Amino acid sequence: MTKTHLKALRGIPPLRLPWRSSVVGALSAGLLAASPAPGADSGNGNQDTSTIIAGVKAPSRHETLPAVRSAVHPGESLKFNVSYGPITAGAAYLEVSGVKDFHGRPVLNLTARAESNKFFSGIYKVRNRIESTWDSAGHYSLRYAETRREGKHHAQSEIVFDYRNQEARYQDGATFPIPPEVQDALSSFYYTRTQALPLGGSLYFDYHASRKSVPLEVKVLGREEVDTPAGKFHCVVIEPILKAGGIFKNNGRLVIWLTDDDRRMPVLMKSKVAIGSISAALVQVKSGV
């Protein structure tokens, strides 16, 4: 890490550091290190990501990968190395609990964590955790929670999705209308893994974050074979697009590589930020059952 890089990192407000997180997940996904938090301004502008997707092979004919309702396995645990350019900055984890009961509904607890390594923690320590309580049968969110430690900033938040009253209830008591079977910032990523993916087309579903519900578009860009520390994988490449605010705000791009099989497992994630590029590469897999 050069002095120039260090100076650049120290000069960025905390909300705009590469670590500022959410998944995707989107679809985040992966998420934790590659995209801004719900409601935060990434400050990235429309970053040029041509180098990120240079190896993606666009579909030559119409093809839709079938839905895989069982793509998400209880007990799945994925570890990623998170890098800023050539420098390893820390680790991110995506974990799925066994089936549990939540107010009489069978659920999976989805967890995403990001941790800066010893070197980066000396500059800006990150210990972030987000959780989604996801209906295991209907595949929609029932609860979303965040615990963040980013430098001197500490924060906790929670959203409970009340489908009887069709509202999202925040911990400060505020409520906002929601459509049926909405996804949150983490469950969106797992939901995408279970859906039919039209190569060269898009997937759309309802998404709630930052006190509003909006449609989320996930573009299916094509295919690519990628090498990661966990192995070589044939992948389908997706990109979440949120045009009306929220975690992506359409002023940055997050690209995710999912295995082109019945697991749809994330193996690589890349994003551009104002001072470089961020990537998260799979290093360790526990498949679950």
Question: Which descriptors would you attach to this protein?
Answer:
3 helices, 15-stranded antiparallel beta sheet, 289 residues, 47% strand, mainly beta, 17 strands, two-stranded antiparallel sheet
Structure description:
The protein is mostly beta strands and 289 residues long. It has one domain. 8% of the residues lie in helices and 47% in strands. It is built from three helices and 17 strands. It has helices at 3-10, 118-124, 187-194, and strands at 63-65, 77-84, 87-96, 100-102, 105-116, 127-135, 141-150, 153-162, 167-170, 175-177, 197-199, 202-209, 212-228, 231-241, 254-259, 266-273, 276-286. It has a 15-stranded antiparallel sheet that branches. It has a two-stranded antiparallel ribbon with strand order 1-11. Strand 15 and strand 16 form a beta hairpin. The longest helix has 8 residues, at 3-10. It is globular and about 45 Å long. The relative contact order is 0.23.
